[in-house]
Structure formats: structure tokens, C-alpha cells
Design goal:
It is built from one helix and 33 strands. By secondary structure, the chain is mainly β. It has a domain of 82 residues: Thrombin, subunit H. Strands 14-15-16-17-21 form a five-stranded mixed sheet, with no helix packed on it. Strands 1-33-32-31 form a four-stranded antiparallel sheet, with no helix packed on it. A hairpin with a 3-residue loop joins strand 32 and strand 33. The longest helix has 22 residues. It is globular and about 55 Å long. The termini are far apart.
């Protein structure tokens, strides 16, 4: 009898830990929606595909199920639901000279996942961009997201557009202020879909804001203003400290807001100029990073209040090797991240901050904008020149495979079932092992 009671207690404790860890994410790993890649950070918000078994090796002539051309430019990542793949782009009209001064069509594509055929395409808006963008990308850098009933495409100043799965427009919100982005680098933060709401960031050189919308109607639930200059961070929603929290990272502070009403719960300073990478969360912590000017990473406890800088609510912090453009990846307790824009990879314990290995050469020669992703015991790390190195998802560094495509890749890749979806510079790829 005593042995049965102890066994039951162990089972209850294990379930409690599992529920707590999975709560610190967009979607629990055992949810039906966890099969798909509905947000650019994957189903859990930590760049993990818990049910996928994607291929390890590919090239232009091997394991490419289909490859379809995409007009225009975009670094928004593909998202996948059932038999549909969604991608955004901004296609300039034919014009001599600088295409960035031309009118653009802001488009959402729906591809058939099996064949690569276009199921439908919608032009959300045709407009002249009010300011320029960075030379490395165009005007479609925000990734779409979907809940399986609707798909949301965000083009920043141009608006946020909600469609049904057949391409019918449900609602649109086009009253955003004209964003004033530093150095004309262009907009890029993606909206975050969580349960029945959309979190929309709006940090720029003007009055910055954070907005919560009803996902079914587009109506505002609340809007707050804060003092943050331009950044390209996508918010993360986590459940911790007894409530749902929206985590943002700005140049001045990493912050937590109560999802229910927009109240600021806590803040922590330490970030550097123009943050880009988005946070990850688990084990009662949220991990934030910024590696542009200097290097800063920190594990922050979710139950803080007020300014937690320098308090015990900062579980750990690092002052070297932080990523710049790409976001970190959290797999179990293993925290993977590249160094600045380069191909050196680190792996640390997310709970203690202690390293398993630091800034190891992976063989990637190009800069890295795409965030690392993981599935089935492997980490996929992609550079701008189209090379992807596959690394063991373990505490020991081991390269499993190195793969090369013929065009550049800035967008984070999507992992679903036995497939990989890559938004290249000119094409959308579906990679699947032949014969599977």
C-alpha cells in the first residue's frame, strides 16, 4: 500500500512539473495544434516542433519535394496548418531605379502542402512604402500566424489582415500610425497569437505602443504606450506568477505586462542598441538576449514586481556570445544561441545559465538571421547563404549533417511532421526525405 501511495505521489509531482513547464509557452506540447507550425517560433514559442521528424540531409538535387517561385522579397517565415502553407511577400511594381521607391503589393500566399500549388493569393494592400527598408530585406518581414480557422498577415504600417482558411477577408485594421524606424531599416516585429487575442507590438522612433486585439473581430481590448525606441522583437506570452504575461524586450528594458489589462508587472534593464531577438520561456524563467552593441543575456523569474534589475529575480546573466538578429532556442533545459550574427553556437543550461559549450564553430560561413529550430533530437542552424548545419540536440556538440541550397535564407525555417519549409530569397521549398 505504501509503495502504491509513493508511486501515485511521484506521478502527481511529475504531472505538475510537466504542466508548469508546458504552460510557459504559446501551446502545450500535447495539444493537437502542436503538430503544426502556426507561429514563426513554432507551436511552443521556443522554436521546437515536438512531434516532427524532419530530414537531416538535403540539397537542390536531393530530398526537395517541391520548389515554387515567390515574387518580391520577404523574410517573414512560413507557417503551416494541416494541408496549407502560408507565406507573405511584398512585390514591387516594375520600375527603373530603386525598387524600394516603387509601389508594392503586400501579398499573402496559401500553398498546397502536398503539391506546392498556389491554393489562393490575396493582395492585402497596394501602396507606396512611406519610408525605406534595410538593404538585406524588403517590406514583408513580419511572419503570419494562424489558429486553423483564420490566418493573420501583418504588414506593419500598412495594416493587419485577417482571412479565413479559404482566403476570404474577415477583418482588417489599417489605422496604425506611420512607423518611424531608425535609419530607415524597415519594420519587422510579428504579432503573437494567444488563445483569443493577438498581441501587436509597435516600437519605433515615434510614440511606441503595445496593442491587444480580439482575434475574431480585430477590436482593441487595450492599448498602452511606453518609452522604447525602434526594435524588431516579437512578444512572447507565458503563463507564470499566477497569470498570463506578455514579455517584450526593448532597448531600455525587458518588460512583462499583464495580458488581462496591459499593466506593467516588472522590468529589467541591461539590453543594448536595437534589440531583434525574441525571448523564450520555461522552468519558471524567461530568457532574453541582445548582442548588437555588447552582449547581454539573462534568465528572469516570472514572479517579479517592479524594477527587478540587480535583484534575485534575475536568476543568471551572461555578458558574452549573445545573439544579435536570431532568437535563442530552448529545448528542455538546453538553451542554444548563435554569437552575434555569426555561425558560432553556444549551449547553456537555461535554469542556471552555466555553459555546456560556448561559441563553437559550426562551419557556417555566412551571417545568420534565421533563428535555430529543433525537432526529433536535432537542432537546425541556417545561415544567410542557404547553408544549414544540423547539430545534435544534446549537451555535447556534434555536427550531424551540413546542407546547402542555391539561394539565400533569412527567414526561420518551419518543421512539420517529416517536412521542412524554407522561405528562400526567391522560392519556397518543401524538403522531405524521398520515399518516406
Amino acid at each position: 500500500m505504501i509503495e502504491k501511495i509513493m508511486k501515485a505521489q511521484r506521478l502527481i509531482a511529475l504531472c505538475a512539473v510537466t504542466c508548469f513547464v508546458s504552460a510557459c509557452s504559446l501551446t502545450a506540447e500535447d495539444s493537437p495544434s502542436a503538430r503544426y507550425w502556426a507561429h514563426w517560433r513554432g507551436p511552443t514559442g521556443n522554436s521546437i516542433a515536438p512531434h516532427a521528424h524532419p530530414p537531416l540531409e538535403w540539397s537542390e538535387s536531393r530530398n526537395v519535394k517541391w520548389k515554387k517561385p515567390l515574387p518580391g522579397r520577404g523574410s517573414g517565415s512560413p507557417v503551416v496548418w494541416e494541408d496549407k502553407v502560408f507565406v507573405v511577400t511584398a512585390a514591387a511594381e516594375e520600375k527603373k531605379g530603386d525598387a524600394k521607391l516603387a509601389s508594392h503589393e503586400f501579398q499573402l500566399y496559401c500553398f498546397d502542402r502536398s503539391t506546392g500549388d498556389v491554393k489562393w493569393k490575396q493582395v492585402a494592400k497596394a501602396a507606396m512604402p512611406h519610408e525605406g527598408s534595410h538593404k538585406d530585406h524588403g517590406f514583408a518581414s513580419a511572419s503570419p500566424c494562424t489558429d486553423g480557422e483564420r490566418v493573420y498577415a501583418h504588414f506593419g504600417t500598412r495594416g493587419l489582415f485577417c482571412y479565413d482558411m479559404k482566403g476570404g477577408l474577415i477583418w482588417k485594421k489599417t489605422d496604425f500610425p506611420a512607423m518611424d524606424i531608425m535609419y530607415d531599416f524597415g519594420e519587422g516585429s510579428s504579432p503573437t497569437l494567444y488563445k483569443d487575442v493577438l498581441v501587436v507590438p509597435g516600437d519605433h522612433e515615434g510614440q511606441s505602443f503595445l496593442l491587444l486585439l480580439d482575434k475574431k473581430t480585430g477590436e482593441e481590448r487595450w492599448r498602452i504606450e511606453h518609452d522604447e525606441p525602434s526594435n524588431w522583437v516579437t512578444p512572447l506570452v507565458v503563463e507564470g506568477g499566477g497569470r498570463a504575461q506578455i514579455i517584450t524586450v526593448g532597448e531600455n528594458f525587458a518588460r512583462s505586462y499583464d495580458l488581462a489589462n496591459g499593466e506593467e508587472l516588472w522590468r529589467c534593464s541591461g539590453a543594448n542598441r536595437r534589440p531583434v531577438g525574441s525571448p523564450v520561456a520555461g522552468h519558471g524563467l524567461v530568457v532574453v538576449a541582445n548582442g548588437h552593441k555588447g552582449s547581454w543575456m539573462a534568465g528572469l523569474r516570472l514572479d517579479g514586481k517592479g524594477d527587478i534589475t540587480g535583484t534575485d529575480k534575475v536568476a543568471w546573466k551572461l555578458d558574452q556570445h549573445a545573439p544579435d538578429i536570431a532568437s535563442p532556442l530552448l529545448s528542455g533545459r538546453r538553451l542554444f544561441f548563435g554569437k552575434k550574427k555569426g555561425g558560432r553556437l553556444s549551449c547553456h543550461d537555461a535554469v542556471t545559465g552555466k555553459p555546456y559549450y560556448k561559441a563553437v564553430e559550426t562551419g557556417l560561413s555566412g551571417n545568420v538571421y534565421s533563428s535555430p529550430v529543433a525537432a526529433n533530437g536535432h537542432v537546425y542552424f541556417t545561415a544567410r547563404d542557404g547553408m544549414t548545419v544540423v547539430i545534435a540536440d544534446s549537451e555535447d556538440f556534434k555536427i550531424v549533417a551540413t546542407n546547402q541550397l542555391d539561394e539565400g535564407v533569412d527567414a526561420t525555417i518551419a518543421l512539420v511532421d517529416r517536412q521542412i519549409f524554407v522561405r528562400g530569397e526567391k522560392h519556397l521549398y518543401c524538403i522531405e526525405e524521398a520515399g518516406k
